[in-house]
Design brief:
It is a peripheral membrane protein. It catalyses: a polar amino acid(out) + ATP + H2O = a polar amino acid(in) + ADP + phosphate + H(+). The chain has helices spanning about 1-10, 60-70, 90-100, 115-125, 130-145, 160-175, 190-205, 220-225, 240-245, 250-260, and strands spanning about 20-35, 35-45, 50-55, 75-80, 85, 100-105, 180-185, 210-215, 225-230, 235-240. It has about 260 residues and is of the alpha/beta class. It has a domain at about 20-110 and about 180-260: P-loop containing nucleotide triphosphate hydrolases (Rossmann fold, 3-Layer(aba) Sandwich), CATH 3.40.50.300. Helix 4 crosses helix 5, helix 4 (about 115-125) runs parallel beside helix 6 (about 160-175) and helix 6 packs parallel to helix 7 (about 190-205). It is globular. The N and C termini lie far apart (about 45 Å). The relative contact order is 0.15. It binds adenosine-5'-diphosphate and magnesium ion (MG). Magnesium ion (MG) binds near residues 62, 63, 183 and 184.
């Protein structure tokens, strides 16, 4: 009975609630900085709705890998696809790609001379050609979602680090990205502000956002990740469920890494 049901579901013409096609695909990606080989045969697929957490020692290539996905870094060889499409080289297509792949960095990178509201409306108006009032409505909704709508008229420097990082998340979401990349979004924050940012990320994950998160927050990795990838020396050494990675790491590098941070 169960088998028949599954088959009927699979053959159904009605779109499934859980449509899990690959959104981000890296195949045989190689990258050097001069003589330094920073990405070595990286193969990675992230499906729609999946939350991938990337961990690993400093210098292992985590940031570089993230930056190649929206082409802030070029690659030497291999292939990167977003929703089936190869990364565009330049121009309008590249701007459109950057809109589809939202990125939140360790340093909040807000425009210091623009208000919080302007920070969020700028790209939708410029890149998506959204009318100003529509962009402002969207921005206020997103700022409310991350809990900083009361700060909309302030300048970034008037906000705490945790608030600024939540604005940075709202700003990325304003472009309606298909996938969100987070590169150590809480590493520069005072400890008491870490959770307010992780809470927003957790909520996004539960809403079905596809996410790639580089983080040292192992609680987040355990509780929110669908899959954990461990990188060292430019290679992906392990990829598995949080339980597999934390309870049964396979490589000595991962065991050593975990012994130092847990
Ligand atoms: P992680 O994020 O895991 O700490 P990174 O991707 O930042 O690692 O760095 C991987 C390696 O590449 C490091 O050895 C780093 O020093 C080097 N690297 C990163 N960016 C550059 C760059 N723009 N030029 C030269 N070397 C770089
Ligand atoms: Mg890094």
């Amino acid at each position: 009975m169960l088998e028949i049901q599954e088959q009927e579901t699979a053959n159904s013409a009605i779109p499934q609630a859980q449509d899990t096609h690959p959104l981000v695909e890296l195949t045989h990606v190689e990258k050097h900085f001069g003589h330094l080989h920073v990405l070595k045969d990286i193969n990675l697929t992230v499906n729609k709705g999946e939350v991938l957490v990337v961990v690993g020692p400093s210098g292992s290539g985590k940031s570089t890998m993230c930056r190649t996905i929206n082409r802030l870094e070029t690659i030497d060889s291999g292939d990167i696809r977003i929703d089936g499409n190869p990364l565009p080289q330049e121009g309008k297509e590249l701007a459109a790609l950057r809109a589809e792949v939202g990125m939140v960095f360790q340093s909040f990178n807000l425009f210091a001379n623009k208000t919080i509201l302007e920070n969020v409306t700028l790209a939708p108006i410029k890149v998506r050609h959204m009318p100003k009032d529509e962009a402002e409505n969207l921005a206020m909704d997103l700022l409310a979602r991350v809990g900083v709508d009361s700060q909309a008229e302030k300048m970034p420097a008037q906000l705490s680090g945790g608030q600024q990082q939540r604005v940075a998340i709202a700003r990325a979401l304003a472009m309606k990205p298909k996938v969100m990349l987070f590169d150590e979004p809480t590493s520069a924050l005072d400890p008491e502000m870490v959770n307010e940012v992780l809470d927003v990320m957790t909520e996004l994950a539960h809403e079905g956002m596809t996410m790639i998160c580089v983080t040292h927050e192992m609680g987040f990795a355990r509780n929110v990740a669908d899959r954990v990838v461990f990188m060292a020396d430019g290679k992906i050494l392990e990829s598995g469920t949080p339980d597999e990675f934390f309870e049964h790491p396979k490589t000595d590098r991962a065991k050593d890494f975990l012994s130092k941070i847990l």
